[in-house]
Amino acid sequence: MLTFHNVCSVPSSFQLTGIPGLESLHIWLSIPFGSMYLVAVVGNVTILAVVRVERSLHQPMYFFLCMLAAVDLVLSTSTIPKLLGIFWFGAGDIGLDACLGQMFLIHCFATVESGIFLAMAFDRYVAICNPLRHRMVLTHTVVGRLGLASLLRGILYIGPLPLMIRLRLPLYKAHVISHSYCEHMAVVALTCGDNRVNNVYGLSIGFLVLILDSVAIAASYVIIFRAVMGLASPEARLKTLGTCASHICAILIFYVPIAVSSLIHRFGHCVPLPVHTLLANFYLLIPPILNPIVYAVRTKQIRERLLQIPRIKTKIR
Length: 317
Prior knowledge:
With 317 residues, the chain is mostly helical. It has one domain (14-311): Rhodopsin 7-helix transmembrane proteins (Rhopdopsin 7-helix transmembrane proteins), CATH 1.20.1070. The chain has helices at residues 26-53, 60-77, 80-89, 96-129, 134-137, 140-158, 160-168, 184-188, 196-229, 234-267, 273-298, 300-316; strands at residues 2-4, 8-10, 13-16, 93-95, 176-177. It is globular. The termini are far apart. It comes from Macaca fascicularis.
């Protein structure tokens, strides 16, 4: 590590603290976090396998669900194994480039997930408001392009974050990150020099993704609800709304924890650091855990396919 003026330095690595203030409970915290990560991995891999095997699920909605499952696997796997390593072995050391890479993965794929939710809202809009053109509009090619556009948008938005830190802010006043992963603001807070550009850019991206995407999704559902209310029978209304229920639940599961964590990070200065760190981890874990459960419970084809697995095992025996 190169040191300048005995204050700022160029670190080769950082030290993640895990859950600051709760170090004595790390072993016990590893039990719920490890269990939740296992549930998230099994649930999302199951969704991917079921959609692949069940040809009746080869539809735009379920292709988007597979993209969502893949993104959730990346989000949870980019943070939780390292966190468990800190809990079990005190392995908080992380290289500078690895830290910036983790930062990119977390923020990039959170942005990608938001884009997929936007694409899913468009799918529901076309399916309900213009059902006769649904198959023509949302072909497999279009679905793939929407997924690729979400990925490219995430790379385009988030790519500059680690680059600006690496190129503009090479010096750090400390190398201990009071967090369980390399969150953008936690890393920027340790840098020497003027970090206002990084802060403004981070806030701008947060606004573009969180506010504009959620407004666009809300607008699409306003139009959907107006179309549903125009249906003649209450049964038809309930059936149509039922097709949107899983998507609405998944949207709330994703956006609410992010909004709460962001507000606490920006304005909740009186909130204890352990609470903030736990919330930051939960918003990366809750969607990967609950999304497969929501869609398995609400989607008849997925539910039936999962119920067939014990029967197949019984027949084999």
